[in-house]
Design a protein that fits this description.
The complex is a heterodimer of chains A (384) and B (329). With 384 residues, chain A is of the alpha/beta class. Helix content of chain A is 44%, strand content 18%. Chain A has twelve helices and 14 strands. Chain A has helices at residues 2-26, 57-77, 94-106, 119-132, 161-175, 189-202, 220-229, 240-252, 268-274, 294-304, 312-327, 333-342, and strands at 44-50, 83-89, 110-114, 136-138, 154-156, 181-185, 206-211, 233-237, 258-261, 282-285, 344-346, 351-353, 365-371, 374-381. The radius of gyration of chain A is 22 Å and the shape is elongated. Chain B has one domain (2-150, 173-314): Orthogonal Bundle (ABC transporter involved in vitamin B12 uptake, BtuC). Chain B is built from 14 helices and four strands. Chain B has helices at 2-6, 8-36, 43-61, 69-104, 109-128, 130-136, 144-147, 175-197, 199-209, 211-216, 221-247, 254-269, 274-295, 300-314, and strands spanning 154-155, 164-168, 171-174, 249-250. Chain B starts with a helix and ends in a 15-residue tail after the last helix. The relative contact order of chain B is 0.20. Classes of the chains: A alpha/beta (384), B mainly alpha (329). At the A-B interface, helix 7, helix 8 and helix 9 of A face helix 2, strand 1, helix 12 and helix 13 of B.
Chain lengths: 384, 329
């Protein structure tokens, strides 16, 4: 496996180079540098990379739908430039991600990727995209370390956990004014990273911590520890599947500490699993409430029959950055990457521009709250 | 360490509750192993189907929490019946499709093992894709409450509200805790008596001891094998309802982890030994909780499986050790 990946990537790169050469020498007198000709749009696709199945599939489907909407709108407006959408369903599994990334690199028509959706898969797929020169914009992966690997193809269109973690901590200490906090994480790249940051930010207020496993269903030992600590708030770093079970069992055991979670839980699946136990849960998210984007909201609902959910709007923005680039004639990976790096424009979620490391430059974190079985916006969290 | 001592009662009770569920599922592994010397790796899916049957009953009946006691008991019994029926049915189907021909042809055990693993994947994916499957028949919208978010956690709308009964050592034991532990023990005793006293039970013991001799003595081996699968399935169905009462949600792949744990419980207690299954379940549940309390939840599986290895090193046949056939029971 290791051997095939190592030798496979250079081989693929060589093959790509060959076909690229073949294209320019064998083709007619088209403007080789590509100046926005209608003809240069043929056989172009952007990819969606992330979970469409698996335990946290909802988060991925929200993102895919955002991308889909952007592509559909683009194709409608540009009859002479039809862009395809390739889906790479990783099931959120870092191990499956490497094979899929190699597959995406091998598909010449794919010149940009919205994704990978989660931090764990971003971590394993990132180097492959970097080596293949395929630009990516994640609409959801928030582990801060991802942008420190020197992958020049990496971008993300939302604030990372270095802004979300302290924001969650600020909310717990300033708004909830909880003197004691218990921190739980799910040992994933996303959850553990976030819990670590919250832990550091809250410092002395943390009265206990515990790590659970994804897929675990019985949390009795963790709940005993929470009760024993007497914490008034519980922060959980992880995804909605475990969060729903955890809060439900907490309430069942009579623990009424405020449950604070982050963007990975901002999904109706959380409420579906937890039921009434979800009430009052605080969810932080570096994403604007959808009410702020009326036009997008309506179009999305029309297309998919449901309201846009977490990161649909971010995905829409990410796809649009790439689509604008394609329209401007950046129809290969190299020039699209350059386009994204230099991009500066108004998205529906924020003013979009990326810094050297691929982080988006404008960040805002919001707190949401579960009320009557709905996730509603609570307030923007001030961060410094 | 002081954490473990201060919360000893709570950790013990919740550990026993978890262990009771492990034990009931473990029965399915242990019975089939006792009779066929096969590990039925698809048994976790038998449990999973039962859990969905129980969920669907509560969806169909639509009972609100806080209903009158007779209604609550009625709904729970109906859910129990549905879970047992579906689990028993799936177990029989499994025997028919995945095993019967292989057993008749006397295929190597490894072949049956692979067949079981394949059946396990197929059953889990069928549940995970149920929204699309009913879609083929144009029933997607009609059956929406039963099939929506097929890949996500599905919540059991428990008609019984959890209530504290009495407080011991700082922990309030709930009605659900008591129901689960008592039911598991009662069912274990009932099964033990069934195997000890009834004609079918004698048949099961006879086939487990020496299937050829049993056949010569006029025991219908195929019928006994079917009965074994059915009994294991029924127990898994009961375990499914008890699990839902405590943990509240199920999922298409929830069987996998539970299956591994239940199988471990069966081996720990002595595979092929009915009483050992429940004992193994209790020991495993307690070990997981104590282990989590001592060094943190991320170590619970390490502690539990380390214990398994240590016990098997000293008692290779498990805690109770006797096989189904040789057991006096």
């Amino acid at each position: 496996m290791r051997f095939s990946v190592k030798t496979g990537v250079p081989l693929l790169a060589a093959a790509l180079a060959l076909t690229a050469c073949g294209g320019t020498t064998g083709g007619d007198d088209d403007n080789a540098s590509g100046g926005g000709d209608a003809g240069s749009c043929e056989d172009i696709a952007i990819g969606y990379f992330g979970a469409l199945t698996g335990a946290a599939a909802n988060l991925g489907i929200n993102i895919r739908n955002g991308v889909q909407l952007a592509v559909d709108q683009f194709n409608e407006e540009n009859a002479d430039c039809q862009v395809g959408l390739e889906e790479y369903d990783s099931a959120g599994d870092p191990n499956q991600a490497t094979g899929l990334a190699t597959q995406a690199i091998g598909d010449d028509s794919v010149i940009g990727i919205v994704g990978p959706a989660f931090s764990g898969e971003s971590d394993t797929a990132g180097p492959i995209f970097a080596e293949g020169g395929l630009p990516t914009i994640s609409a959801s992966a928030t582990n801060p370390a991802l942008s420190t690997n020197g992958w020049d193809t990496f971008h993300r269109i939302l604030g990372n956990d270095d802004s979300q973690g302290p924001a969650a901590a600020t909310y717990i200490s300033d708004v909830l004014q909880a003197p004691s906090v218990f921190v739980v994480d799910d040992a994933s790249a996303y959850g553990a990273g976030l819990a670590e940051i919250v832990n550091e930010s809250l410092a002395d207020a943390v009265v206990g911590e515990d790590t659970i496993q994804t897929g675990q269903t019985d949390f009795s030992a963790t709940i005993t520890a929470i009760r024993d600590s007497g914490a008034e708030a519980v922060f959980f770093g992880g995804y909605y599947a475990e969060a729903g079970l955890l809060v439900q069992q907490m309430r069942g055991a009579g623990v009424d500490a405020t449950f604070v979670v982050a963007d990975g839980v901002k999904d109706p699946g959380f409420i579906e699993a937890a039921g009434d136990a979800a009430e009052g849960t605080i969810i932080t998210c570096p994403c604007l409430p959808p009410e702020e984007q009326q036009e997008f909201f309506t179009a999305f609902e029309e297309a998919f029959g449901s309201a846009p959910a977490t990161y649909s709007a971010e995905a829409y923005d990410a796809a649009n950055v790439m689509l604008e680039g394609i329209k401007e004639g950046n129809t290969d990976r190299e020039s699209l990457l350059e386009w994204i790096n230099d991009y500066s424009g108004e998205g529906i979620t924020k003013q979009v521009s990326f810094d050297e490391s691929g982080e988006v430059e404008n960040i805002s974190v919001w707190a949401y709250k579960v009320e009557n079985g709905e996730i509603v916006a609570d307030q923007e969290i001030e961060t410094d | 360490m002081s954490f473990l001592i201060n919360n000893f009662v709570e950790l013990t009770v919740t550990g026993l509750v978890l262990g009771a569920v492990y034990g009931l599922v473990a029965l399915g592994y242990t019975l089939v192993y006792g009779v066929l010397q096969l590990i039925n790796f698809a048994h976790s899916e038998v449990w999973m189907f039962g859990s969905f049957a129980a969920v669907w009953v509560t969806v169909a009946v639509g009972v609100a929490p806080g209903s009158a006691l007779p209604v609550v008991i009625g709904v729970l019994l109906l859910a129990l019946l549905a879970a047992m029926t579906v689990s028993g049915g799936v177990a029989l189907l499994l025997e028919r499709v995945a095993y019967r021909r292989l057993i008749r042809l006397d295929a190597p055990k490894l072949v049956a093992l692979i067949s079981a693993i394949g059946a396990s994947f197929a059953l889990a994916e069928i549940m995970g894709l149920r929204d699309r499957i009913v879609g083929w028949f144009g029933l997607r919208d009609d059956l929406d409450p039963y099939v929506r978010s097929a890949r996500d956690n599905t919540r059991f709308r428990n008609p019984l509200e959890t209530e504290g009964l009495f407080t011991v050592g700082g922990y309030t034991v709930t009605n659900v805790d008591v129901i689960i532990i008592v039911s598991a023990v009662v069912m274990m005793i009932a099964l033990d008596q069934f195997i000890r006293r009834t004609r079918t039970g004698k048949g099961i013991r006879a086939v487990a001891q020496d299937s050829e001799a049993a056949a010569l003595m006029g025991v219908n081996r195929n019928r006994i094998i079917r009965a074994t699968f059915l009994v294991g399935g029924i127990m898994a169905g009961a375990a499914a309802l008890l699990y839902l009462m405590r943990f509240g949600v199920t999922r298409w792949n929830a069987g996998f982890l539970l299956g591994v744990k239940a199988f471990t419980a069966a081996v720990l207690g002595g595979i092929g030994n009915v009483r050992g299954a429940l004992l193994g379940g209790f020991v495993l549940g307690l070990a997981e909780n104590y282990g989590s309390a001592l060094i943190g939840s991320e170590w619970r599986d390490v502690v539990a499986f380390l214990l398994l290895v240590v016990i098997l090193l000293f008692r290779p046949t498990g805690l109770l050790g006797e096989s189904l056939g040789r057991a006096r029971a």
